[in-house]
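Researcher: Go.
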Amino acid sequence: MPASTRLGSSFRDPSGFVFTHEGTLLRQINEPYGDSFRQLVSSGLYGELADAGLLVRHEDASLDLALEAGAMAVIRPERVPFISYPYEWSFSQLKWAALTTLQIQIRSIERGMTLKDASAYNIQFVGGNPILIDTLSFEPLNIGKPWKPYRQFCQHFLAPLVLMSHVDVRLSRLAANYIDGIPLDLASKLSKPFTRFNARIAMHLHVHAQLQAKAANSTPSENHRGGFGKNALLGLIDSLHGLIEKLEWKPEGTEWADYYDDTNYSSASMSEKHQLVAQFLSAVTPTPALVWDLGANNGEFSQLASSKLIPTVAWDIDPAAVEKNVVKRRADRFMLPLVLDLTNPSPSIGWANHERESLLERGPADVVMALALIHHLAIGNNVPLSDIADFLSQVGRWLIIEFVPKEDSQVQRLLASREDVFPRYVQADFESSFGSKFELVNKHSISGTKRTLYLMKSRGL
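Model: Structure:
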């Protein structure tokens, strides 16, 4: 592996780019951006935003580390624990990210600067709170000019939020198909029957989409708009803020939103399961730096890892369960709930399939938890046990997994609507399939159930 590697996602902005040098994350700042960067610091905006937890902090690094010619500076930004993407966020996470972007813009205006872009991918979550990670997103404020990233903000934030709030929360997945943001004409077409009488949505989405279509067929002179002063700019931001703040989505009605209200665990067996998972986590050496909980639901067991101050990503397919987890545990500085369909995980997308990393590329985690999950994959989605074992051995160095036999009421619930064509879904075959990929470290039956909890170590990582 080369000593320095440019990140595949960092190529669009000529102002600079992010790269790694011997495992250290660095950002090169190119000479044409020098004046803007110096103003960001000298104006006090960088300090204000960093102190408020709105912009990632950085340290100066040696210019000798520059990866390419033309650098005026190299900085060392703080790493975030885990990189996630907007199409993996819950409704509230996307809403908080949008409001944070607008808050940053307001503070920038007061310091004589402005955001030059408003990409949702520039926002990450640290300690449950959104933070801007692109230090080069600022430029001097040019009074009289419209807000340059207005359309981008609407495509990356407003369009998906309106669709999630007024049409169907699952439409957030459109962001994975449109890496530059959901087209406004598409969002308008899908949402207009539900939002045509909302004046702010009409202005920022429906009329905006019409003007965008008109501008695409006009000459540059026809697109020019002047006289966009500071008050008008603040008014635009305030209008967007008011609109987004009022958008709501209530997490209910999905299959797994209230899973822990309807399980076959007694209070005693649930308590024992908590104790076993905690014991297995403590047995992992060295102490894990990252835990993934696959099928985390509302984070009931994820918090066993985050309470140990271990960064924990709580993945689940159900947007309502994830939303409940996000809202309930926002104060948990070490948990990041995200939406994920394990049978169709986030792929590598963007230019040359390198802009946004797949699930596998963002692993492996030190520990993967797969509790009450395997029957959904093996029976609910017909994935062979050997394939599940192979996948899990690639995404985690250690595995805490629960085997749920056919006799269990939750498996019977799955089999009630399908033919039982799973003769190999038995504990012996489970242990054989996973034994080829993992070393068994511990095994314990959960009292009052027919379930068994395993601690395993990957043979391949």
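Model: The first helix runs from residue 34 to 42.
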